[in-house]
Task: structure prediction
Amino acid sequence: MGRWAIGALLMCLAGWASAADPLFGKYNHGAALKGIGDKQGFAPCLESTGVTARCKENVEYAGGRFRLALTFEKQKLEDAALYGEYSDASYRRVLQQVAKSYMLVAIADDKNVVDVLAHTLNPNRTAADAKTIGDFETHALRNGTITYRLYEQLDKYIKPGLDAKQVLASLPANIRVVEVTVKRDETGGLLIVQFARPGLDAKKAKR
Result:
């Protein structure tokens, strides 16, 4: 499957969401730090970043093995991220996996962001517009940094007449977001899959 074909697939597919607030697997947003430790296979990590995190090795996702990092804020679980070595095969498998239950909203490199949702909802979109997005995706991959931002069950909130900004404004606070990031240079590559519920974090910050 070509790289732009993957982007197109992500534009088209969406799926289900749970009534709970899981981030990844059985790990729920807001879970207490004290409940995650050695007995569950976790150890302190990411100390150099200044965040409180616990990591577990050799976690399976999309047919590959990753390091799972759980990040905490005020002793409560805020997000979960999978870190693995980049390969074309793992990159494709991960994007195909998230496409089963998430819808693509944006693609970014280290400087620019393309609003894919606005393109998807534009009744006057053209093949030229799609090619522009595809070219951006290809360029970002070639230059070593790309991030796909997707929302779970986003199709449920798309109504006739609503533009991208209106759809995003209508979303519930607990909607789950995944960001798939590729970082590559001459020494190798990293594939990151981060799960978050940013609306819940923003709501918590206002209290």
